[in-house]
């Protein structure tokens, strides 16, 4: 057995904001991918994955929902034959490792599944997102369902609000100097503790005000600029967003990167923002001159995502 490939995702803009109903923009990231495979002799990571899938199978068996039902009999049989999720997507890095897994299980075992070939109305997209949210909650405690949706559709997705999502056309890449890149913190981040910190902070009126008056405002402006290809304005807004995140989301930024973050703002060589929930994994970088950013960040591993 060999399932279709599902890709990693990058939430370019909207981390945390989408929990509170502001805009978000997610794009597939084809450098990392995963697929369901079967092996008679399971060892190492494959064995671990198979055991984790058995736990996921139990979770899905006990789900009380009218949203979706699964062919649990086949799922169990395949697990007993040695099925595992073979993935190059790093876990705890904010690029959707559990999302790709959820998408592949839905694709393989859901009854009456919504396929990517049909006309994807807003209602169908919202239903898919809701199904994926319920499924992915097994991994994170609370999930928006966006990562699996992105992985399943393999399309850029624009989140206007919780009730309004649509596939987005993003400008095609150019061979310019500018770039979006990933900076490897070389630490694993865990989603659930970070989301809990955020939820606690949201109890504070000042923090809530900052989210709506600054964070959401700059995020929305960045998304509008990115989608319309307005690069000059984009960098101005990304800088503002980067400042707000450094000031208000310190627990989500690994300690070793507070200074690196501030250096980018000071030198204008690059601007950093969270990639996913933070706490480790990848940090997302934006630069008007990728060569300059590489020089400034020569002690770190960078990976190119998109060129301007």
UniProtKB/TrEMBL annotation:
Pfam families, per database record: GHMP_kinases_N
Q: Which UniProt keywords apply?
A: ATP-binding, Kinase, Nucleotide-binding, Transferase
InterPro entries reported for this sequence: GHMP_kinase_C_sf, GHMP_kinase_N_dom, HddA/FKP, Ribosomal_Su5_D2-typ_SF, Ribsml_uS5_D2-typ_fold_subgr
Q: Which Gene3D superfamilies match?
A: 3.30.230.10
> Residue ranges of the GHMP kinase N-terminal domain?
83-147
UniProt GO MF annotations: kinase activity
Per its record, how is this protein called by name? Answer: Mevalonate kinase
Provenance organism: Polaribacter marinivivus
């Amino acid at each position: 057995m060999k399932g279709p490939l599902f890709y990693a995702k990058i939430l370019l803009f909207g981390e945390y904001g989408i929990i509170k109903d502001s805009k978000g923009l997610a794009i597939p990231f084809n450098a990392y991918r995963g697929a369901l495979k079967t092996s008679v002799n399971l060892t190492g990571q494959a064995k671990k994955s198979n055991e984790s899938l058995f736990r996921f199978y139990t979770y899905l068996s006990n789900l009380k929902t009218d949203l979706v039902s699964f062919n649990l009999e086949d799922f169990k049989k395949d697990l007993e034959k040695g099925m595992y999720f073979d993935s190059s997507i790093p876990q705890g890095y904010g690029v959707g490792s559990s999302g790709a897994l959820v998408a592949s299980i839905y694709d393989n075992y859901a009854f009456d599944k919504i396929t990517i070939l049909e006309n994807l109305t807003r209602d169908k997209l919202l239903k898919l997102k809701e199904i994926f949210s319920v499924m992915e909650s097994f991994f994170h405690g609370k999930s928006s369902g966006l990562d699996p949706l992105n992985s399943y559709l393999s399309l850029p997705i624009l989140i206007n609000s919780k009730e309004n999502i649509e596939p987005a056309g993003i400008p095609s890449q150019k061979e310019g100097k500018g770039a979006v890149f990933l900076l490897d913190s070389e630490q694993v981040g865990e989603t659930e503790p970070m989301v809990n910190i955020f939820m606690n902070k949201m109890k504070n009126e000042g923090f809530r005000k900052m989210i709506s008056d600054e964070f959401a405002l700059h995020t929305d402006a960045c998304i509008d600029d990115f989608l319309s290809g307005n690069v000059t304005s984009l960098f101005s807004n990304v800088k503002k967003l980067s400042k707000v995140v450094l000031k208000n989301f310190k627990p989500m930024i690994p300690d070793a990167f507070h200074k690196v973050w501030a250096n980018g703002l000071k030198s204008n060589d690059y601007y950093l923002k969270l990639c996913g929930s933070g706490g480790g994994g990848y940090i997302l970088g934006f630069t008007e001159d990728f060569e300059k950013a590489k020089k400034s960040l020569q002690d770190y591993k960078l990976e190119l995502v998109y060129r301007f």
